[in-house]
C-alpha cells in the first residue's frame, strides 16, 4: 500500500486514494488569506443573453448550471476529477488529477459551499465552492458561479478564488510550482470559461454538448465526460498528495 506523498510508476488505484479523502481536513484557514503571498482572482465570462427577469427554462443560465454542477467545464488535459455523483453536492469529496507533461498529481478537495440566491436584488446566482484538503499542491478555495443579471438578461460564468502553493511542498515540486504553477492556474481558468461557453452554445442549438456519458469506476464517475485515457498515460509518473510534508503518512499539515 502506498503512502501519501509517494511517487508511483505504473497503474494507480484512484478509487482507493479517493476513499482516503474522507479522513482529510481542509489545509488552510481563511484567517491566513492575505496579499501578496496569496493570489486573489476573479474571472468573468459572458455565456449568452436571455430576456430580462428570472432565468428562462432551458436557457443559458439553466444549461450552464447543469454543466457546472457536474464539473463538465474542467479541461481534461489539465484537471480531471473522480467523485460520487450520488453524494450530496455540499460536502462532496473530489479527487482531482492535475496533469502536467507526463506527471499526474492527485489532490483532494471538498465542496464546502453551495450558492443559490438572488444577490443585490438583481443577480440570480447558483454555484458552489470547493476547498483544498491536506496533501493538496495548493491551499485555498475556488468558487464557480452562474449569474443572470435579471435587469439586462446577461448570463455570466464567474470564477473567484484565493490560493497559494502549499508550504509543505518538497524542493523539487516547489520549484516546479514556482516556475509553472501560476501560469497553469490561469490557463485552467481560461480553458474552463472557453469550454463552458462552447457547451452552452451547443446545448442552445439543440446539440448534446458532450460526446458520451461519463466514464465510471464502480459507483464513482470521472469528470468531465470527455475524459479519455491515452496510451502514454501508462508511462506517466503519479504523485499522490504532493503537498504532504516529507515522511508524512497521514497527509496532515503540521500546526
Automatic annotation (TrEMBL):
Lineage top rank: taxon: Bacteria
InterPro entries membership: DUF1990
Q: Which residues form the DUF1990 domain?
A: 36-194
Designated name of the protein = Uncharacterized protein (UPF0548 family)
> Native species of this protein?
Streptomyces rapamycinicus
Amino acid at each position: 500500500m502506498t503512502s501519501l506523498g509517494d511517487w508511483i510508476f505504473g497503474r494507480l488505484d484512484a478509487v482507493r486514494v479517493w476513499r482516503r479523502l474522507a479522513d482529510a481536513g481542509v489545509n488552510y484557514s481563511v484567517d491566513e488569506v492575505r496579499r501578496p503571498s496569496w493570489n486573489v482572482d476573479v474571472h468573468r465570462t459572458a455565456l449568452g443573453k436571455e430576456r430580462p427577469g428570472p432565468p428562462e427554462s432551458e436557457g443559458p443560465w439553466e444549461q450552464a448550471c447543469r454543466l457546472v454542477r457536474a464539473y463538465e467545464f474542467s479541461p481534461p488535459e489539465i484537471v480531471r476529477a473522480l467523485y460520487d455523483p450520488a453524494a450530496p453536492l455540499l460536502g462532496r469529496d473530489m479527487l482531482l488529477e492535475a496533469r502536467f507533461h507526463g506527471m499526474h498529481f492527485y489532490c483532494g478537495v471538498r465542496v464546502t459551499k453551495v450558492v443559490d440566491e438572488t444577490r443585490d436584488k438583481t443577480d440570480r446566482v447558483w454555484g458552489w465552492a470547493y476547498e483544498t484538503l491536506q496533501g493538496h499542491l495548493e491551499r485555498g478555495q475556488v468558487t464557480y458561479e452562474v449569474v443572470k443579471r435579471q435587469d439586462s438578461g446577461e448570463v455570466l460564468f464567474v470564477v473567484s478564488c484565493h490560493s497559494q502553493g502549499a508550504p509543505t511542498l518538497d524542493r523539487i515540486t516547489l520549484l516546479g510550482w514556482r516556475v509553472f504553477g501560476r501560469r497553469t492556474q490561469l490557463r485552467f481558468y481560461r480553458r474552463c470559461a472557453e469550454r463552458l461557453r462552447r457547451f452552452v452554445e451547443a446545448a442552445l442549438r439543440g446539440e448534446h454538448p458532450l460526446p458520451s456519458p461519463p466514464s465510471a469506476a464502480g459507483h464513482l464517475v470521472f469528470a468531465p465526460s470527455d475524459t479519455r485515457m491515452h496510451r502514454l498515460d501508462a508511462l506517466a509518473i503519479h504523485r499522490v498528495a504532493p503537498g504532504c510534508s516529507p515522511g508524512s503518512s497521514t497527509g496532515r499539515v503540521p500546526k
